[in-house]
Design goal:
The protein is of the alpha/beta class. It is built from seven helices and four strands; from the N terminus they run βαβαββααααα. β2, α2 and β3 form a beta-alpha-beta unit.
């Protein structure tokens, strides 16, 4: 789609361009194209600046067309302007538009190639990560296991061993000791005492 932004004093040139575009056989561009009619009056027109800012923000194609002697606005300084100050030359404009349309497939192809290259890089990094992890020596956290075992032993000594019978008299009173122990500790207390007795018998 091609649109034209211009100020009121440049309406004649803008309408002439519109009429020539309607008759010209120009392929449709994938991205919007904005023709900016540039003149001293246009540089003061807020509507022209608003349309230009919108096109810049949306990354549209922009073609400045100089219709009077003046410097390009700073926003358009890096664009190649068509100079219509001496005479109107629609052939130049048509060639410029055709060049824009022709360049778009190359841009799309370059984008596809870039995307493919990034995909290959990601896959390569992923495979290298797998090889690195597979080749690395992964050791079990033995210190952590030892610490857990030590904590378990301390818990048994603090909660169970202090209640185990150490004499005949304590053995006779052991059922009462079990009854006095917290409910959660009773099974472990009985199993520990039983294991100790079985060990002594062996």
């Amino acid at each position: 789609m091609i649109t034209i932004t211009y100020t009121a004093s440049d309406a004649d040139v803008a309408k002439r361009i519109q009429a020539d575009l309607a008759q010209a056989d120009i392929a449709e561009a994938r991205r919007h194209i904005l023709l900016v009619i540039v003149s001293p009056d246009a540089k003061k027109d807020e509507d022209v600046h608003r349309a230009l800012d919108d096109a810049l923000h949306k990354h549209h194609h922009i073609v400045p067309v100089l219709v009077a002697q003046t410097q390009l606005p700073a926003k358009l300084a890096h664009f190649d302007a068509l100079d219509f100050t001496d005479r109107y030359d629609f052939d130049k404009l048509r060639a410029q538009l055709a060049s824009i349309v022709a360049s778009e497939p190359d841009i799309r192809r370059n984008n596809r190639l870039t995307a493919f290259a990034l995909f290959v890089i990601v896959i390569a990094i992923f495979l290298l990560a797998i090889l690195f992890i597979g080749g690395a020596d992964i050791e079990a956290p033995q210190d952590e296991y030892n610490a857990i075992a030590t904590d378990e032993q301390r818990t048994i000594e603090a909660l169970i061993n202090v209640n185990l019978p150490r004499s005949t008299e304590e053995a006779a009173n052991f059922p009462a000791t079990v009854d006095a122990a917290p409910t959660a500790q009773r099974p472990l207390l009985i199993q520990t005492a039983t294991a100790l007795v079985d060990g002594e018998r062996e």
